[in-house]
Amino acid sequence: MKTGKKNYIVSIILGVFAIAFILPLLYALYTSFLKLSDIDKLVGIKNWTLESYLKFWKDPNYNIPRWFFNTVLMTGITIAGNVVINSMAGYALAKLNFPGKNLVFFIIVATMTIPYQIILIPVYVTMAKLGWLNTVASVTVPYLYQCIFVFMMKQFFSGIPNELLEAARIDGLTKVGVFFRIMLPLSKPGIISMIILNFTSTWNAYLVPSTMLNNKDSYVLIVGLNSVKDQFFDRTNVIMAGVVLITLPVVILFLIFQKQYIEGVATSGLKG
After folding, report:
1. Whole-prediction pTM
2. Residue 6 domain-assigned?
């Protein structure tokens, strides 16, 4: 089979998969603009309405601005912590020599196999004893480090030639200086990949926030909107409006940084 024909077939297959994945989002977006009487009907744009979205903003039982702020705060703190801590850990494991380095890396890889549900109760008890329940600390502090991102950054840093680091040290840079002035700028694709993955997992996280937060004012978006689902289970348009509010930021972020994300994921699997 000729290369051109093979690429054409692959493109068709990928296109079919892309359509299959995007259809649920398009359905949610379309349905969120419909009146309840128009659900499961094909109607023109002139019949669309913002009624479902206005329901969230006008109903005093659903403090969407507060939930949105809580979600942004939780996601921002978690991402910042992961970028700093995981990058430093990955740099140390990839480029520095210290006793027990291989053992530390083995433990990090081993913890990736442990389901989070196993440690959720100990984390909850710890948060309760610290008095952090219903605070942003309970959904951020335990998750400032994530072993999967340490592994990813370690693999990424391993692909950077050691000669570059040695040249920087000859020029007088310390190990800290090498990290901030050499390693971080070169690791931009890896960091963007980590940000996107961390943003997606944190923004859409339900298990941990629903466990740690039981005060309506401390809800994050997905927990608050889940209560909307329970009350408006028979109003598909309202539920779909909630789905759009949760999903849209993730889609926008990925569309903006998709090139760097793909490059980072590909590069993190290489070793120098």
Report:
1. 0.80
2. no
Rounded to whole angstroms, the Cα distance separating 102 from 110 reads 12
145: which 2 tokens? 């480090």
3-state secondary structure of 149: helix
Closest CA to 225 of 117, 76, 66: 66
Token pair in block for residue 233 = 């289970």
Q: 31-67 burial, b if ≥16 CB within 10 A, otherwise e? A: bbbbeeeeeeeeeeeeeeeeebbebbeeeeebbbebb
User: Do the domain assignments include residue 256?
Assistant: yes
> CA-CA distance, 264 to 217, in Å (whole number)?
37
Query: Domain count of the chain?
Result: 1
What separation, in Å, do the N-terminal and C-terminal C-alpha atoms of the chain show?
A: 35
Element (H, E) at 113: none
Encoding tokens for residue 69?
Answer: 């702020």
| pLDDT tens for each residue of the chain, 272 residues long | 556 677 778 788 888 888 888 888 888 888 888 887 788 788 888 888 888 888 777 777 778 888 889 999 999 999 999 999 999 999 999 888 888 888 998 998 888 888 888 888 999 999 999 999 999 999 999 889 888 899 888 888 888 888 888 888 888 888 888 888 888 888 888 888 888 889 988 998 888 999 999 888 899 988 888 877 666 666 778 788 888 888 888 888 878 877 766 665 555 544 44
The answer to whether residue 161 sits within a structural domain is yes
Q: Do the domain assignments include residue 39?
A: no
Q: How far is Cα 145 from Cα 183, in angstroms, rounded to an integer?
A: 19
CA torsion sign, 231 to 237 to 239 to 245?
Answer: negative
CA distance 87 to 105: 14
User: Which residue range forms the structural domain that includes residue 143?
Assistant: 60-267
